[in-house]
Design a protein that fits this description.
heterodimer; A: 112 residues; mainly beta; 6-stranded mixed β-sheet; 5-stranded antiparallel β-sheet; 56% strand; B: 115 residues; 7-stranded mixed β-sheet; 4-stranded antiparallel β-sheet; 11 strands
């Protein structure tokens, strides 16, 4: 039972354009959501998070949107840069629980 | 150290052998997590330590897996009677605060291959 789903295994975008990565979840008890970026042979690196009491959180070029009614969140990267090419994981946790539940990841390729 | 350190970075072992994977968290971080990432999947939770105690071990797949953190810092994940299905990247993470909803900092992982 996949509680966090990233249905697009890959995404290709041109440099300077917007990248939109999507994530859906099924567990209504999730109240905190995170995005991690992963380069080959490295561990995931925290990128940005959002609490369920918000619908948007912005940090520089990265913005995460949360639609609780749709159980959907998205990560927007604008403008995209070649260095953003990596695998992006969506993750979620329940109130009071420490463990993160990850999606299967989306591989982003930003071409010059 | 500057980040979470995991050793070894790669481990090849024969089916049925015992292995130990080590994690050195960021200094001062009280929470420590183990995750396992199989090919094409996201990381899957194994166990969470708060201090020396395992606060949540619900992700350990069976009793061949065990983890310790005796002094509240370094942790060791132990796998007995390894099977080929145990092959994966084992990730360790730590976080600085006790409260939920804090981002975790990951190490580079140990790639375990059981042949």
């Amino acid at each position: 039972d996949q509680q966090v789903k990233q249905n697009s295994p890959s995404l290709s975008v041109q440099e300077g354009r917007i990248s939109i990565l999507n994530c859906d979840y099924t567990n209504s008890m999730f109240d905190y959501f995170l995005w991690y970026k992963k380069y080959p042979a490295e561990g995931p690196t925290f990128l940005i998070s959002i609490s369920s009491i918000k619908d948007k959180n912005e940090d520089g070029r990265f913005t995460v949107f949360l639609n609780k009614s749709a159980k959907h969140l998205s990560l927007h990267i604008v403008p995209s840069q070649p260095g953003d090419s990596a695998v992006y994981f969506c993750a979620a946790s329940e109130r009071g629980f420490q463990k993160l539940v990850f999606g299967t990841g989306t591989r982003l390729l930003v071409s010059p | 150290g500057a980040g979470v350190s995991q050793t070894p970075s790669n481990k090849v072992t024969e089916k049925g052998k015992y292995v130990e994977l080590r994690c050195d968290p960021i200094s001062g971080h009280t929470a420590l997590y183990w995750y396992r990432q199989s090919l094409g999947q996201g990381p899957e939770f194994l166990i969470y330590f708060q201090g020396t105690g395992a606060a949540d071990d619900s992700g350990l797949p069976n009793d061949r897996f065990f983890a310790v953190r005796p002094e509240g810092s370094v942790s060791t994940l132990k796998i007995q009677r390894t099977e080929r299905g145990d092959s994966a990247v084992y990730l360790c993470a730590s976080s600085p605060r006790q409260g939920a909803n804090t981002e975790a900092f990951f190490g580079q992982g140990t790639r375990l291959t059981v042949v």
